[in-house]
Structures are given as structure tokens and as C-alpha cells.
Amino acid sequence: MNQVGIRSEELVRKLFELHNQGPDVIMAAFEEILDPEIVWSPSVIGGLEGGSYQGYAGMRRYYADRAETFAEGQVHVLGVERVGDDGLLTHVLSTGVGRASGARLEQELWMAMTTRDCRVVRWQAFTSRAEAMECLDA
After folding, report:
1. What is the per-residue pLDDT across 110-124, written as a single tens digit (0 to 9) for each?
2. pLDDT in tens, 60-100
3. Rounded to whole angstroms, how far apart are CA atoms 117 and 121?
4. For the structural domain made of 3-137, what CATH number should be given?
């Protein structure tokens, strides 16, 4: 793997490591790991309605929405692949507990990510590898 590939995988792993430490930790690191023009389209929160979150303000709103929906949760990176010059395909296992229902959630997801200047600028979650690859190939 070349240096760009190594840095990309490190970026993804750091993003989810910070995410797993809680909203305050990742929000403090936004400028380091996320481009100011970040667009995040999750598969669950906002995603079911086709919603997305834009910029740092949008990401703060996402974490507030997430806290209302889930009592706890973690994202475990299963693999990262470089796609083209600026794309990343990340396979994760997302776990959580519904705040209202107490139901446990465990779902494999594929993240299509685009980077700019070593930060994530576009981030979309999909339930299949094919959908995520289609997004990156577009």
C-alpha cells in the first residue's frame, strides 16, 4: 500500500476511534479529520428520509440527533479500500441500543468516503458494498 493509502486508512480508523469515544471527543477533532464542507448521509438517522448533514454545524446536529435515537453505540472498522485517487470504501460493523425501545442494533455497513487534503469531504453509508462502490464510481 502506498503512503496515500496508508494515510487514508489511518484517517478512517482515527475517525471511528474518535466517534466511539463520544460526541464531545469527535466534535473537538472535526477540523483535523473533516473538511469544512463535509456532507454526511447516514443510513439510519436522517438517511431513511434521504437526509444529510452538511458542514461542521450539520455534523453537530447529527450527533445531537444520534444521541436522541441511540443510548449507546460503536462502529468497528472491518476493512478499508482505496478507490481511485480520493475515494475510500470502508466496511464497518455498527452497533447500538435504541434509546426508546432498548432494542439492540447490529448492522454491517459500507461507507463511501471522498477525501480532500487528507480530510473527509463526503461520507455516505450504504447497506451493501455494491451501492457504496456505485457511489464512488459516479
Report:
1. 999 999 988 999 999
2. 999 988 888 888 889 999 999 999 989 999 999 999 898 88
3. 9
4. 3.10.450.50
Is 40's pLDDT higher than 50?
Answer: yes
- Hey, where are the domains in the chain? 3-137
Contact 96, 72 (CB under 8 A): yes
What's the pTM?
Answer: 0.86
What are the contacts of 78-87 at 24+ separation with CB within 8 A? 78/108, 80/8, 80/9, 80/12, 80/13, 82/1, 82/4, 82/5, 82/8, 83/133, 83/136, 83/137, 84/136, 86/114, 86/115, 86/116, 87/112, 87/113, 87/114, 87/115, 87/136
Q: Phi and psi (nearest 5°) for 22?
A: 115, 160
SS3 percent helix, strand, coil of the chain, rounded to 5, is: 40, 40, 20
